[in-house]
Write a sequence for this structure.
């Protein structure tokens, strides 16, 4: 099969490109800048640069259609929120290639944290009480109501702009520094003490073909994970199946949970794309789930462990007290980017920082924090609920 992987900058895109290549499939990779790490995997037959979907969604979708025709693509495999532009302009691909994605309305319902929480309650799943704030006044009213609270924008990702007065991120963002609006509301919930647990599923029209669940033994600045350990958690598979069957979901989908001290898995949010759960699936498991012929659900077993070594090095630079632990972990697990037979993506993780720098200047934050780096990385492929022409 000939597969087009978009947003090849993402670490799980690198992973899936390798898995597809090792499975004997032809991979064409695309992104908005030429230094995207996934473009330079040895498993990529052709690398392409496309318009930014965040600002030129129609042009991006037309470019993907042109690549489909140019390379005889059978399957388009989105890796991030460019999927919204493709789903909105799905008609461009109909009859030319399969887009591994649900319809736009399904994606938007899960991606928007307001409608996500409402949908989870309707399905009878565990989700915390939530209040939607569309102004700073409403935000403070919700905060005062809950006391111990957790809040974030309805359209957000990557641990960026989290508001809470509990745990290691307490006070990291001042509520007075954000301005909820009707078009970009904030979801405020009571703070739940627990362990972050994540899942990822490969789904064909409501049927979960592959599923993995993982924890973060180590995070960067208490938010994004940089170490990933698969665990046994049938509760996350049960939740994923319930959601995907109810919505006839098609594509890759990931859920974030909080497991409390009583063992309850509380749904936090949904990513309508792959995440680090891809790392703990073998090439055979992933390819059989994505392309066939798997009939039963493939579930990643507990104990598989991967890491992002460059993030560990960054942590050592910024947090010198963590150097002994980070140095110990540095060579303790397979690295996401570094692979003996495919070393170039690791090199391009450094070269791609030029892209981050350019967009940091456009964001004009003047900051060099993890949040700023993450926001810049996603800048031209994110969707924040705005109309897509």
């Amino acid at each position: 099969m000939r597969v087009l992987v978009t947003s090849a900058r993402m670490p799980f895109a690198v992973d899936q490109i390798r898995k597809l290549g090792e499975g004997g499939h032809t991979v064409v990779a695309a992104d908005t800048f030429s230094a995207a790490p996934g473009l330079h995997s040895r498993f990529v037959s052709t690398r392409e640069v496309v318009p930014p979907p965040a600002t030129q969604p129609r042009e991006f979708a037309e470019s993907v259609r042109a690549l489909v025709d140019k390379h005889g693509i059978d399957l388009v495999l989105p890796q991030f929120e460019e999927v919204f532009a493709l789903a909105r302009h799905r008609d461009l691909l109909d009859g030319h290639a399969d887009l591994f994605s649900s319809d736009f309305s399904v994606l938007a319902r899960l991606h928007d944290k307001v409608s996500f929480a409402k949908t989870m309650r309707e399905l009878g799943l565990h989700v915390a009480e939530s209040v939607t704030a569309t102004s700073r006044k409403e935000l403070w009213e919700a905060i005062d109501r809950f006391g111990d609270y957790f809040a974030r924008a309805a359209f957000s990702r990557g641990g960026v702009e989290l508001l809470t007065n509990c745990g290691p991120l307490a006070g990291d963002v001042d509520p007075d520094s954000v301005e909820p609006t009707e078009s970009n509301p904030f979801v405020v919930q009571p703070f739940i003490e627990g362990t972050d647990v994540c899942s990822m599923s490969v789904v064909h029209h409501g049927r979960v073909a592959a599923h993995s669940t993982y924890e973060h033994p180590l995070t960067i600045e208490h938010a994004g994970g940089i170490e990933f350990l698969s665990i046994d958690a049938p509760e996350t598979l049960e939740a994923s199946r319930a959601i995907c069957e109810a919505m006839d979901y098609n594509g890759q989908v990931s859920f974030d949970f909080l497991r409390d001290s009583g063992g309850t898995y509380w749904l936090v949010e949904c990513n309508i794309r792959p995440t680090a759960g891809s790392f703990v699936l073998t090439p055979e498991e992933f390819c059989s789930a994505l392309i066939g012929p798997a009939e039963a659900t493939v579930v990643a077993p507990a104990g598989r462990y991967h890491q992002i070594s460059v993030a560990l090095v960054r942590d050592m630079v910024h947090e010198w007290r963590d150097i002994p632990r980070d140095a110990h972990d540095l060579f303790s697990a397979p690295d996401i980017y570094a692979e003996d037979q495919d070393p170039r993506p690791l090199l391009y993780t450094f070269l791609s920082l030029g892209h981050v720098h350019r967009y940091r200047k456009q964001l004009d934050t003047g900051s060099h924090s993890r949040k700023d780096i993450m926001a810049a990385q996603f800048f031209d492929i994110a969707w924040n609920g705005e109309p897509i022409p």
